Amino acid sequence: MNQKKRQQIFDRLAKAIPEPTTELEYSTPFELLIAVVLSAQATDKGVNKATKELFKHANTPEAILALGEEDLKHYIKTIGLFNSKAANIIKLCQRLLEKHNGEVPDTRDALEALAGVGRKTANVILNTAFGHPVIAVDTHIFRVCNRTRLAPGKTVLEVEKKLEKVTPKEHKKDAHHLLILHGRYTCIARKPRCGSCVIEDLCEYPDKILE
Predict the structure, then answer these.
(1) 169 with 124, same domain?
(2) Which of 205, 141, 158 has the alpha carbon at shortest distance from 1?
(3) SS3 annotation, the chain
(4) Which of 4, 15, 120, 191 is catalytic?
(5) What is the reported pTM?
(6) Which end of the chain is more exposed for a tag (fewer CB within 10 A), N or C?
(7) Rounded Cα–Cα distance for residues 89 and 34 (Å)
(8) Could you confirm whether 49 is annotated as catalytic?
(9) Among 11, 85, 138, 154, the one annotated catalytic
C-alpha cells in the first residue's frame, strides 16, 4: 500500500469518526490506568460496569490500598483473571505511592515498571491520558492493519513500529482510537461490514463481503 492511500484512509476515518476516544469510562489518569489494566481479555462494557461501583468507593491509590485485595476482588469479580488483576492493582498502587507520590507517571519506562502494565497498556495511558502521539496495538488494530494492508506485520510490535512510520503526522494522536473503533464496529473479526465501510475502495483485503 502506498502512502497516498494511507493518507486517504486516515482522512476518511477521521471524517467518519469526528471524536475518536476510548469507550472506557474514567475521570482521572489513575482511573483510566485501573480501567485499562482491567480491560485485558475483557470488554470495555464489562470493565465500565465494574469500575462504576469500584470508583464510587475507591478511585485513588490510597483508597484502593485501604480497600485491600479481597474487597477489591469483590468489585471486579465479573472480569476475567480478576484474582491476578487484583494482586497487580494492589502492587501498582503501592509503587505509585512509593515512587510517584500517588500520581500516574507519563513516561513509558515508569509505566511499564508498574505491576500488570505492559507496552500496550503504557501506550494507551500515554496517548489517552497525556496526549502523546503513540499507538497501542490491540487485537482490533492488529486485524485492521493486516487485513487492509495499511501496516501489515506478524507481531503486535511489528505493526506498531510500522504504524509509527506510515501514519500521517496530523493523525498520529488519534490513530489509536480511529483504528480501534473502525475494527470494533466495521472491520469486525467475522464477516467484516465491507458494504458500509468508508475505506472499502482503498482497502486491499482480497475477500471483501459486499452484501
Answers:
(1) no
(2) 205
(3) CCHHHHHHHHHHHHHHCCCCCCCCCCCCHHHHHHHHHHCCCCCHHHHHHHHHHHHHHCCCHHHHHHHCHHHHHHHHCCCCCHHHHHHHHHHHHHHHHHHHCCCCCCCHHHHHCCCCCCHHHHHHHHHHCCCCCCCCCCHHHHHHHHHHCCCCCCCHHHHHHHHHHHCCHHHHHHHHHHHHHHHHHCCCCCCCCHHHCCCCCCCCCCCCCCC
(4) 120
(5) 0.91
(6) C
(7) 7
(8) no
(9) 138
Burial class of residue 23, CB neighbours in 10 A (0-12, 13-18, 19+): middle
- Shared domain for 68 and 116, answered yes or no, is yes
Joined grid coordinates for residue 188: 469486525
Using the 8-state DSSP alphabet, how is residue 27 labeled? S
Q: Tell me how many domains the chain contains.
A: 2
Domain of 111, CATH number, reads 1.10.340.30
- Identify the segments of the chain with pLDDT beneath 70: none
For position 191, which CATH number holds?
A: 1.10.1670.10
47-98 pLDDT tens trace: 999 999 999 999 999 999 999 999 999 999 999 899 999 999 999 999 999 9
Which of 109, 92, 118, 73 minimizes the C-alpha distance to 34?
92
Residues 94 and 182 in one domain: no
Residue 201: DSSP 8-state: T
Domain that residue 92 falls in: 29-128
Could you confirm whether 120 is annotated as catalytic? yes
